[in-house]
Amino acid sequence: MSRLRGFGHLKGMPDSYHFQNGTPLASSAKQPAPTRLLIADPQRVVAEAIADRFGRERDIVIAGIATTPEEVRTLEAATSPHVLLLEIDFEGCGVFGLCSEIATHSPDVRFVFLTTNDADVSLKAALDLSAGYLLKTDSLDDVVAAVGGMEGDSRPFSTRIANRMRFDRVRNRYVLKKRPPVTDLTSRQVEVLRHIARGRTTREIAADLQLTPNGVESQKHRIMHKLKIHDRVGLARYAIREGLLLP
Known about the structure:
- The structure is a single chain.
- By secondary structure, the chain is an alpha/beta fold.
- It folds into two domains: 7-176, Rossmann fold (3-Layer(aba) Sandwich); 181-241, Winged helix-like DNA-binding domain superfamily/Winged helix DNA-binding domain (Arc Repressor Mutant, subunit A, Orthogonal Bundle).
- It contains ten helices and nine strands.
- A five-stranded parallel β-sheet has the order 4-3-5-6-7, with helices on both faces. A two-stranded antiparallel ribbon has the order 1-2. A two-stranded antiparallel ribbon has the order 8-9.
- Strand 3, helix 1 (44-54) and strand 4 (60-66) form a beta-alpha-beta unit.
- Helix 7 packs across helix 10.
- The longest helix has 15 residues, at 213-227.
């Protein structure tokens, strides 16, 4: 079982803690008001299981369950959740772009990703959003404790994730310890690359991501330039190797 600790398994710290400005924070007393939690996962059975476990907590209220990006938008607007717990891999949707969209009109919502996707590019995109990052290999009890212990600007990270991060005090944010070339891609370019790797045509990608075909082609050429790969087959192989596609 993976324990939700923080940076580098620091000795003498509680089993579960969070980071705020580079400092691990021990979990403290529960919040006086219940936390409204919106859960988003493309697999309803998974979302319902997560909601069932969180629903046993006195200090957490389930604001809703969303299984599509459209439901996320609708429920977020209707319920004003404090925390949005969501899977990264929604077919045909740029989740990081969706979160950025939500953050523009709901700046106080806190994002936490709960996913099987541990690719560097996904972690970087989450850090750019100041989001937490938990893995589905953690127990639900640990996930509940981590989300329930969030205070202020603190964010929870699974151990495997925390060990790949460091706090940049100059930039006042978390960054990856190592930066592979794929992390230079924007979140939009990552989504285009994922669609290319799935064999989608330019027109299909444009429809899925609400871009023009010319916009998709422009993003594709920028991706090729950054990765120094000059054909679609090479891009697909690269995406698979970097873990951008789930089995």
